[in-house]
């Protein structure tokens, strides 16, 4: 695929031909069926706390929420909408089953003619505590902890495209908040920022971008499950390996997988270390993840699939 150089938020970055995104990326997922009549309602929260990114918060609390529920942040792609990502993905139905709470942030940044993106390029977004969308999203998590007795030990992030990029950025900037993440069709943290780029970096250089996001941090790092389609026409499939190299380096793991399996036809799963990093290749998939069934794998990876306690 031909690439071109554009400017993004005043930063020179190399991008794929993003004119294709509008046709492919609307909600950031495939429709998986109507919301059950017994499901809870998605609600907007307007007073959740500090919001330097000036983004909106939508919240899904299942009717049979656990007494001390886990928290999942689920983020749409560019040109997408939080309510659509809620309706068109399986995270809410899984929350109904297991009793965790889902936060759906609404991105509002513009980039390369796209709208409703999450900030993954500014200095504020790429470094802990400096502002923009990551600070706003952590405020949303803190709101759920305060108002719904959320479990700080079980906070996770997932997303598609721009939301997947923000997932990696949240894991880098707030490793003490997010225990794991599952980016679908994303890019490594720092790709679109100063010193980033679309390849040609060593694992050490990718890892340094994460370490630079929070230089003082010495605690445990989040686990990561990355997904990418082999015929992604928007973000190159090679970005899956770049994410693997980034997170295995950060976690001090070998670049060689300990196992390679096929969970179902067309999927290849590579596991690194003792399961801290997983990479899923989806054969013949375009820029349209998560496909039906994939969200359940992410929920199991997070450990949110145990029985709820109403």
UniProtKB/TrEMBL annotation:
Source species taxonomy: Bacteria, Bacillati, Actinomycetota, Actinomycetes, Streptosporangiales
GO molecular function, one term: hydrolase activity
Keywords of this entry: Hydrolase, Signal
PANTHER family per UniProt: FERULOYL ESTERASE, UNNAMED PRODUCT-RELATED
Domain of life: Bacteria
Keyword Hydrolase found: yes
Protein name: Alpha/beta hydrolase family esterase
Listed InterPro entries: AB_hydrolase_fold (IPR029058), Esterase_phb (IPR010126), Plant_Biomass_Hydrol_Est (IPR050955)
Annotated TM spans: none
Pfam families: Esterase_PHB (PF10503)
């Amino acid at each position: 695929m031909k690439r071109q150089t554009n400017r993004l938020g005043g930063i020179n970055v190399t991008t794929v031909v993003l004119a294709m995104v509008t046709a492919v990326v609307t909600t950031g997922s495939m429709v998986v069926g109507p919301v059950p009549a017994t499901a809870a309602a998605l609600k907007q929260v307007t007073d959740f706390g500090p919001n330097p990114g000036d983004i909106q918060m939508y919240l899904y609390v299942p009717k049979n929420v656990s007494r001390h529920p886990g928290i999942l942040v689920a983020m749409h792609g560019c040109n997408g909408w939080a309510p659509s990502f809620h309706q068109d993905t399986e995270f809410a139905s899984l929350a109904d089953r297991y009793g965790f709470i889902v936060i759906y942030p609404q991105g509002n940044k513009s980039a390369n003619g796209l709208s409703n993106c999450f900030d993954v390029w500014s200095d504020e977004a790429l470094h802990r505590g400096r502002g923009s969308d990551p600070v706003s999203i952590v405020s949303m998590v803190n709101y759920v902890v305060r108002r719904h007795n959320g479990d700080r030990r079980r906070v996770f992030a997932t997303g598609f495209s721009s939301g997947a990029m923000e997932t990696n950025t949240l894991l880098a900037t707030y490793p003490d908040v997010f225990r794991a993440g599952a980016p679908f069709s994303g890019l490594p943290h720092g790709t679109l920022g100063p010193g980033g780029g679309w390849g040609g970096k060593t694992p050490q250089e990718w890892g340094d971008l994460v370490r630079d996001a929070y230089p003082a941090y010495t605690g445990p790092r989040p686990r990561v499950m990355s997904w990418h389609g082999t015929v992604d026409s928007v973000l190159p499939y090679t970005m899956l390996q770049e994410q693997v190299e980034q997170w295995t380096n950060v976690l001090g793991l070998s670049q060689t997988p300990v196992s390679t399996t096929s969970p179902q036809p067309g999927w290849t799963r590579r596991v690194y270390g003792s399961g801290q990093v997983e990479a899923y290749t989806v054969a013949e998939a375009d820029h349209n993840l998560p496909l039906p069934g994939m969200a359940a794998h992410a929920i199991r990876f997070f450990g949110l699939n145990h029985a709820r306690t109403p």
